[in-house]
Design goal:
alpha+beta, 9-stranded antiparallel β-sheet, 10 helices
Length: 383
Amino acid sequence: MAIEYNITRPIPIRWFAPVVYFFGLIVVGLLTVLNVALVGYETITIFNPNPNYTQSEWYDALPMRAPTPGSACAPTVFNVGDSFTTNYSMFQWTIESIPRSNTGTGVLYKGTPLDHCDLTSLYIHGDSRSYAIEYTGVVTCKAAEGYELRAKTAFTLSSLPGKYSPFYGGVGQPIFENLGLSILKRMTLEVLPSVLCSGDIQLRILDDMFVRSNGTTPIVASVQIDFPPCPASLGTSAECATSVPTYNVSALALGYADLRVELYSALLPISDTNKPLLMDDYNAPLSNIVQVIAAGIRLDLGNPSPNNFLLNDAVVDETLYATFPETNLTSAAFSRLYMVRKSPALAVPGSKLETILPLNVSGPAVARVAYACRYQRRKSAGH
């Protein structure tokens, strides 16, 4: 006997069909939304200065894993020869060497504060024949992330109008107000070069000494200054951050018009041919210049050490020479740098420096670089 089944069979549930249609529409809607979220966007690469850049989209509210801040951006890799500036933008730095790498050859970097960096050496080369002074500052960074690098900044300052000086600017000119420069950079542009180029060193060494000696004093001076490390990571209560900043003259050379050269090296024992060459004629102005360059570089590194005379009025007198002594070849004189720092309204009328001194550090410095970040862009119609 054959078994037969009805083609249709009534379902005893009264609202079965409407319920099926309702949930079916919901499922179709969810699948459509998920499909748009998954295939309606394409990933492209953009460059962003923020390593923690995170893109917000409407589908972040869906039951999916929300993006982790910073996961969209890849670290940048610094190699020897690469340049960068910090967020204070006072100097441009070029990487000179990488004694220890965290990637094999370069340095993997993703916004780590530069509180492990500090000025280690300063090179100064002055030539009275060119009316120019060359400066090279070297910083060393020893990071907890396992890398060590050395970077330099170099610039030449001159009072001659035809000598290009990247930081040279006329004091008190309103052009700097119109450019909207930051206070720190304005300080660098308006004050430091004017003091260094046409102030203490040039008047005392290149003019006064050379003229009074009938051309027998040095016409070229070249010096290497080394600093004990005092990075911001040590804290503002560290001894090196509260005492007067110190430095060591590691090497010095003086050149004369008759082509004689006198040399000094701190690595060699003192002898008739290796004597300390710093004299009272130029020891004080040299010390002031070393202090102001060191203070500026540490500002650029975001170091808030209380012994920085640009940040703290209380340490100006113990850091800078206010006057220079009279010697056989020089007259007693006031330090222009000291005058600018103590009484900026009188020393540089119209500059408004009295409204911004002392300066302040708003936070740790970071390297300003562009990070490659993933960005979800909605596809155009037909793609």
